[in-house]
């Protein structure tokens, strides 16, 4: 594992959710680099916002 | 300077047995605790919150009395139901609310000067956190007979079958109070853990100004191998949900603030049974590229519209297909995976 590897995880409502088939992905991102991942995020329909 | 080191230096500077009491009438809830009498430094301050005033008792603690047990009435003056930022959305389940603290929780006030000085420092969160641990399973910061029995936990070794039981060290600056949410990632999975004796996936506690808390945590035992443990602390976790219903047709990813929360992260490499074999091995599934010159790289993560040529500034979108964009300005070696 290269030292520039970064784990990517996605949280929704403070809970880990999978994207692109897994809950964690690893990107090898050197200093100054960027990555772009195409994915689909399904948001809740209408969350109940309460005071 | 790590918070634990700050605590140690203050403790060593303290005298013993001397106590003074001052009563200060201030308006709640936004008044910072400022020095009452400059000469009291470096005494310790005990703060209790009443309905209309802070009662500030300056007390010098002797060495070895870094923390006292949390009093049962610690939260009595706090109105959980109406305080700003305390409104947890009903759909957000799995949250353990710690509305009382057990005697196992260590608590200590900061000196007047320390509170005032740290309130002036440019920390946008107004708090710091850490994990404290000792190889002695009996060590506790509460009423300890030594100067500081626990140290910052970055590398920890345990025997097979031994529980990992650190303390969440939490320190708040001047006038900072609010709800905090804590969760844990073990070997890249979100897991339940015990906090102050209660097990849950997400733990909510309240912090008051000018306090140090040492809250016991129990991750349980681990199989042999090297484990990657991260504790995430989210300040004001519910503020991003807003207080007014949002028109569904106008809801965007920004409205959900899915990317606008920056937790305080504490990470520990835990080696169990002397076995350095990673408990979970991750493989690289994407490789970074140099960013387009017009974008630059500023070390952020955003959502962008799927297919967008320019990622930055196009992250307002309604739903579904998105592009997750991450970049870094870290030097190689700063971001390492221990799994």
Could you outline the blueprint of secondary structure elements for this entry?
The complex is a heterodimer of chains A (51) and B (339).
Chain A: E1 5-8, E2 10-12, E3 15-17, E4 25-28, E5 34-41
Antiparallel strand pairs in A: 1-4, 2-3
Chain B: H1 3-13, E1 22-24, E2 44-49, E3 54-59, E4 68-69, E5 95-97, E6 106-109, H2 112-120, E7 127-133, E8 151-152, E9 155-158, E10 167-172, E11 178-186, E12 189-191, E13 193-195, E14 198-200, E15 202-207, E16 211-218, E17 225-235, H3 253-256, E18 264-272, E19 286-287, E20 301-305, E21 320-327
Parallel strand pairs in B: 5-15, 9-18
Antiparallel strand pairs in B: 1-3, 2-3, 4-6, 6-16, 7-8, 7-10, 10-16, 11-12, 11-15, 11-17, 13-14, 13-16, 17-18, 20-21
What is the C-alpha radius of gyration of chain A, as a whole number of Å? 15 Å
Helix content of chain B: under 10%
The low-confidence runs of chain A, each spanning 5 or more residues with pLDDT under 50, are 47-51
Please give the largest β-sheet of chain B: 8 strands, antiparallel
């Amino acid at each position: 594992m290269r030292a520039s590897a970064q784990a990517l995880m996605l949280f929704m409502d403070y809970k880990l959710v999978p994207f692109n088939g897994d809950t964690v992905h690893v990107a090898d991102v050197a200093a100054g680099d960027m990555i772009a991942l195409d994915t689909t995020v399904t948001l809740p329909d209408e969350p109940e916002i309460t005071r | 300077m790590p918070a634990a080191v700050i605590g140690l230096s203050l403790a060593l500077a303290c005298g013993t047995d001397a106590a003074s009491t001052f009563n200060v009438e201030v308006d709640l809830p936004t008044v910072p605790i400022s020095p009452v009498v400059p000469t009291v430094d470096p005494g310790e301050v005990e703060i209790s919150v009443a309905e209309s005033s802070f009662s500030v008792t300056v007390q010098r603690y002797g060495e070895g009395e870094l923390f006292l047990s949390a009093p049962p009435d610690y939260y009595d003056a706090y109105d959980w139901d109406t305080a700003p930022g305390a409104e947890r959305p009903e759909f957000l389940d799995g949250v353990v609310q710690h509305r009382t603290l057990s005697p196992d929780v260590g608590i200590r006030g900061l000196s007047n000067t320390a509170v005032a000085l740290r309130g002036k420092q440019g920390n946008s969160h107004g708090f710091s956190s850490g994990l404290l641990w000792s190889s002695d399973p009996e060590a506790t910061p509460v009423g300890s007979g030594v100067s500081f029995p626990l140290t910052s936990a970055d590398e920890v070794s345990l025997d097979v079958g031994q529980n990992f039981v650190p303390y969440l060290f939490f320190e708040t600056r001047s006038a900072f109070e609010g709800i905090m949410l804590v969760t844990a990632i073990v070997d890249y999975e979100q897991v339940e853990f015990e906090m102050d004796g209660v097990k849950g996936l997400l733990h909510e506690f309240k912090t008051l100004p000018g306090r140090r808390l040492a809250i016991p945590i129990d991750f349980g035992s681990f199989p042999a191998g090297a484990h990657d443990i991260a504790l995430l602390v989210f300040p004001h976790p519910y503020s991003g949900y807003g207080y007014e219903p949002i028109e569904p047709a106008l809801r965007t990813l920004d409205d959900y603030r899915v990317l606008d929360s920056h937790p305080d992260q504490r990470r520990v490499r835990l080696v169990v049974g002397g076995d350095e074999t990673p408990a979970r091995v991750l493989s690289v599934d994407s490789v970074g590229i140099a960013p387009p010159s017009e974008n630059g790289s500023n070390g952020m993560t955003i959502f962008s519209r799927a297919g967008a040529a320019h990622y930055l500034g196009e992250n307002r979108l309604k739903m579904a297909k998105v592009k997750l964009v991450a970049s870094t300005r870290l030097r190689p070696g700063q971001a390492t995976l221990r799994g």
